[in-house]
Amino acid sequence: MNFAPQISLSEKTYQPEKENNHQRGFYGYNIWRNDELIEGAWPESHYSDTLTETGEYAYYISAVYDQCESDTTGMVSISLFTDIKTPASKQNQINIYPNPASDQLFIAAEAQDAIIHHFTLTSVSGQPVLSLSPESRRIRLDVSLLPKGIYLAEIFSGEKREFRKIIIY
Questions:
Q1: What pLDDT score was predicted for residue 51?
Q2: Residue in 107, 98, 102, 99 with CA at minimum distance from that of residue 157
């Protein structure tokens, strides 16, 4: 038994020329970044993008065939962080060492009158990992159980707020 599918589009009828025409030629992938097509019919199964600015990037991908295009994939979101620079006036206000760390991490307010009021550690995907309110000049953290990777530390000392990149290996 042969089946020739028919698809009705308003009053017109589409019927494939060949029976069992369920194989279509694959051309590649369309790749969108932030709703802008950046590659059309990309022939490879992987893609490396070159980003020059920090920010949030949303990617969508669809497969392109000779007669049609698939729906797009779900959104893949990427947050790109570059090194966070501390202004010269704030340098050495808060020291974090060793960085990178594998077992212990120390956070120290160097000024005699500086107190660390709040410390938050966040993964690069934005998930909070640790939050402390020590009201102290020094903090010692055991990071041996944290997954290896890059983290963002937010430190409140007095009325100052600093961000630092922390690497756990």
A1: 73
A2: 107
Average pLDDT, the chain: 79
pTM reported for the whole predicted model: 0.48
What confidence tens digit (pLDDT) does each residue in 119-131 have?
A: 999 998 889 999 9
User: Would you call the peptide bond into 100 cis, given omega within 30 degrees of 0 as the criterion?
Assistant: yes
State how far the Cα of 63 lies from the Cα of 60, in Å rounded to an integer: 11
**159: its two tokens:** 């009325």
Query: 61: part of which helix (H) or strand (E)?
Result: strand 55-65
Nearest to 72 by CA among 59, 87, 55: 59
* 117 and 136 Cβ atoms separated by less than 8 Å: no
Among candidate residues 154, 151, 142, 158, the one with its CA nearest the CA of residue 109: 158
Between these two residues, 75 and 139, which has the higher pLDDT value?
139
Q: Alpha carbon of 163 to those of 105, 109, 133, 143: distances in Å?
A: 16, 14, 16, 18
With contact defined as beta carbons under 8 Å apart, do 86 and 162 qualify? yes
Query: Residue 130 carries which side chain, given as an amino acid letter?
Result: L
The H-assigned helical ranges of 117-162 are: none
